[in-house]
Amino acid sequence: MSRRASILGLAVAAVLLALGLQSWGLAQALVERHVVAGIEKRVGLKVTSLKRAEIAFLPLPRISLSGVTFASHDGALSGTALRLRARARLLSLVAGQLDFDRVDLIGPEIDIVVPDEPQGYANWAAPALAYLSGLKSETQLVISAGSLMARSGNTILTTLRDVNLVVEERDETAPVAFAGAFTWRGETARVNLLWPVTGERARVAIALSSNLMSLRLNGTRSGAQGVMTGQVEFNTRSLPDALAWIGPRPRIATLVRQVELTAEAQLAGDNISLSNVIAKLDGDQLEGALKLDGSGARRVLSGTLAGADFDLGRLIRQGENQPLPGAGEPSETPLEFDLWTAHDVDLRISLDSARLGTARLGDLAAQLMVRKGRFEASVLRASAYGGSARARILATAVPAGAELKLQLGLDRVNLGQAGGDLPDLLGGLTGTATGQLALDGVGDSLEQVVGSLTGRVNATLRQGEFKGVAFGELLRRAERPPAARDWRQGRTSFETAQFTALAHRGVLTLTEAQMAGPGYALSLNGNADLGRRWLELTGLLSATNGPARTSFEIRGPFADAVFTPTFDAAVHPTGATRQFAR
């Protein structure tokens, strides 16, 4: 080939390349007849209007539509896009056919029509999945910088923004597969989905993750009933924040923060059944079975869980430290009863060991029952320091707020053993304790309930001692002051101690309070104001083998009341006062 021919050939190729790279405007009628029909066939979206169409042939044949309006055949999906790009298959063009291997929606705003009475997220997603599953053949669909809006009539249910999604190419029987990211309620989330369209037990895989939580499901889906079964994993650093993101946050969810859960799951609509559950709640592991029924207006959580060791005190602390906006006056502690009973709960928990602050319990069986207008938490049984304990809190709705019933029972609890875990509460107190507490109160704040408490408290202690006051030295001081040693040091043994008190409007009044030990007998009377946490008691200490006797007064706040004998000026010995205050 001559030099002139080579130059001419290169010039022609350059011209053809330039022409191929150039976008060419097409007549709208021609676009509708060929391009729009091809797009509709491949992605199931009918282009109802457009502003401009362009075509380029190199490096690959492609078509670009601007200002596009589109809709699915059944009208479940509709919207607009700044631009729609379709990449044609080169081999199909050679064969004289127009087909596409990729369609891009740039900046789309897509509306999804949800049934008139949507009950949950499963119904919200159903129209989009039905649209994708119904396509006989689908090219790769790419959504860039879009938004998806779910509507029910004129009501906007939810909106996904910053949607960047790739729906993979498939044939009629292949599963729907897509992956991407979006922003929902201010949080960026990543999603992967494999959704079967045929087969009685076809594989399904779902993964959703954000900074707040992650959820994975790998299993199968029954084509006839739409029931999914498989392995589920759920993780969150803050359960209250995660639930507030995906839906209403139950007040009871504030009891737990970090959750790691794996289980065998069965999902049927808005009902979820979990078996072989392994859940770590703030590091403590529980195992068992759970069920969540979300089909009604009130969600229902039920199940049984068991664990080797669990911190019950942490649940109480976290519940107290999770205030909700606008809840009561700053000077009061609102009960938030309606929020605590917004959903139904029936949980039964058994633990080999439980912690309540620094106290430890064993072989514990507990129950949490929540119904509309009713909240009940019970320790049905627990071993406690050689004895047993039980407790119950029952709250029911009344016009004044909530009526609370508090019950506590102790049987043969060894206070010497308990003192090792509760030194600030029991100090040097030993002996065996049996007692009951039954109090009722009404109000819409903790302060109102305490101020209205009515009921009865009684306790019996046997064969023990306490430190801080030596009753023997106190009696000798009353009889022969110069010869007595300091009564504010040492210990006092007792054989029995009995206390009975009646509560009325938040004030406990002693009806019987006696203590007896080697060489002495003691009696008490007075009251304790539970609202003010204030003690006002008087007592008489008598020698059983002589005439010595002295009266005394215990007065002051619960944690720091002053013990004052009548024969001396007010004294305040360290440790002694607090033993009497209990």
Q: Which key features would you list for this structure?
A:
582 residues, 31-stranded mixed β-sheet, 54% strand, single chain, 33 strands
Globally, the shape reads elongated
Largest sheet: 31 strands, mixed
User: What's the total helix number?
Assistant: 13
**Strand composition percent:** over 45%
- Please state the average pLDDT score: 83
Helix content: 10-25%
Quick overview:
The protein is of the alpha+beta class. 18% of the residues lie in helices and 54% in strands. The longest helix is centred in the N-terminal third of the chain and has 19 residues, at 3-21.
SSE blueprint and pairings:
Blueprint: H1 3-21, E1 24-25, H2 28-33, H3 35-43, E2 45-49, E3 52-56, E4 62-72, E5 77-88, H4 90-94, E6 100-106, E7 109-113, H5 121-133, E8 137-138, E9 140-152, E10 155-167, E11 170-171, E12 176-184, E13 187-195, E14 201-210, E15 213-222, E16 228-236, H6 239-246, E17 259-268, E18 271-281, E19 284-293, E20 300-311, H7 312-320, H8 337-340, E21 344-356, E22 359-371, E23 374-384, E24 387-398, E25 401-414, H9 415-421, H10 423-426, E26 432-443, H11 446-451, E27 454-467, H12 471-479, E28 491-504, E29 507-517, E30 520-529, E31 534-543, E32 549-557, E33 562-565, H13 576-581
Parallel strand pairs: 6-9, 7-9, 20-21
Antiparallel strand pairs: 1-3, 2-4, 3-4, 4-5, 5-6, 5-7, 8-11, 9-10, 10-12, 12-13, 13-14, 14-15, 15-16, 16-17, 17-18, 18-19, 19-20, 21-22, 22-23, 23-24, 24-25, 25-26, 26-27, 27-28, 28-29, 29-30, 30-31, 31-32, 32-33
